[in-house]
Amino acid sequence: MDQDWIFAGARRLGGFFGNLRRSRPPEEAAEAESPSVTPRIGLALGGGFARGIAHAGVLKILEQHQIPIYSITGVSSGAIVAAAYASGASPEEIGRAGCVMRFGDVGRWSLGRLGLVGSERMRGFLKRLLKTYQFEQMRIPFGVLATDLSSGKPVTFFGPGSVFDPIRASCSYPGLFQPVPYQGRLLVDGAMSMEIPAALARQLGATHVISVHLPARGTSTNPSNVFQVVNRCFQILQSRSEDSWRNETDLVIAPDVRDVDWDAFGRGPELIEAGEIAALAALPRIKEWFADPQALTAPGALLPAEG
Hints:
Blueprint: H1 2-22, H2 26-33, E1 41-45, H3 54-64, E2 71-74, H4 77-87, H5 91-100, E3 108-109, E4 117-118, H6 121-129, E5 142-148, E6 154-157, H7 164-170, E7 180-182, E8 185-189, H8 198-203, E9 208-212, H9 226-240, H10 242-246, E10 251-253, H11 268-291, E11 302-303
């Protein structure tokens, strides 16, 4: 009898506390079930030779509006900008370096069996631009993507170790730059296997990935030289695999740089402005993430729309 009374009392007490849990205000219950998490934004920068200067404009606007960047990745010219920013260089410093940069700062014509240009000079350029030269010393997580010329698969770099050869490899446009030998492999431009390293940004811990896409000149005119023919072939190839990086992306920023040639470094100020305009258009969507971290944009959203 005494035991029955004890068990009955325990059931009544449990029911009392259960009713308390069920009667909590809806907003309090939601808060307990879905704790707020601050978005960790990963920035993935695409390539484009001189068009990469536009990345400095994007970074400038994000900094001005105090949008924190948790991690940054890049391919080709995007790898140079990403490394500079991760090392501590300001968007203004990166923009100035891009505006005065010339092809000879990173490449030397050197006819060889595997390419026309050697990229050894890029090491000196990076030493002047970057604040540190090791992956593990970067102020935020930083990653680079290159392509294994033999297997065709992407090769990721995010430390520890020197950033010089991975960046050189990521910038080695096939047919122009000579491939970079690295640990028994020949590496070329990362954009050959993945146009924008959005998945790598997520791998480095980002919860929200912004991909910065630098669209090239359209098809309204026929190529006039062999480099333009090769470049157009790569554009076609990349368009076939575009879904792979868009599926890892929460927001795409696409500065309007389509009328800028690959080597038009003299148009740096225009490129920076194009990056600023595109980033400003994206700000309202980015700020929504901090007001409501669960309100993700649809993957592949375009700001502004690409034609």
